[in-house]
Amino acid sequence: MVAKKAKVESMLRSTPEVAGEVLPGVSKRRDWSMEEKLRILAQGSAPGSSPVLTCRMHGISSGQFYTWRKQFRSGALTGFMPVSMATEVAALPAPVASQPAPLVAGYVEVELPNGVKLRVRGDVDAVALRQILSAVR
Question: Over the stretch 91-100, which tens digit does the pLDDT of each residue have?
Fold first, then answer.
């Protein structure tokens, strides 16, 4: 046990001291601007390009590249969310007040752009379904 302790102490004495000081506010991390991130994403996603080669060229990990891509797709990177236009769906006809609203049997699932899914199983009142669909527009 004493020999191990002496060996560790001799190793600690023989290692060179690192001269230098720690400067506050200086970071080893690179702070990428949004424009640089978008340029790198466009370059890595271009036809004939490779995300791995783009990452090597810019000195970033592939994990960082895919994190930026995920942030871009969710709108977190730019503050804007990608939107796709769909053909307009014909409005549901208004229920006739004199007749009871029919029940829609089965399963209804609505997925919102933020990933939240609304699932309704069983018999669904048509009026309630219209109210739900108009609320999520």
Answer: 666 665 555 5
Helical packing angle, 51-58 and 62-74, nearest 10°: 110
At residue 28, what is the residue type?
K
Q: How far is 55 from 44, CA to CA, in rounded Å?
A: 8
In which region does residue 81 sit, left (phi positive, over 0), alpha (psi from -120 to 50) or beta (all else)? beta
Distance of alpha carbon 100 from alpha carbon 93, whole angstroms: 14
Number of Cβ within 10 Å of residue 41's Cβ equals: 20
Indicate whether this model's pTM tops 0.70: no
Structure tokens at 131: 């109210």
Using alpha carbons, list the distances in angstroms from residue 54 to 41, 43, 46, 57, 71: 9, 7, 10, 5, 18
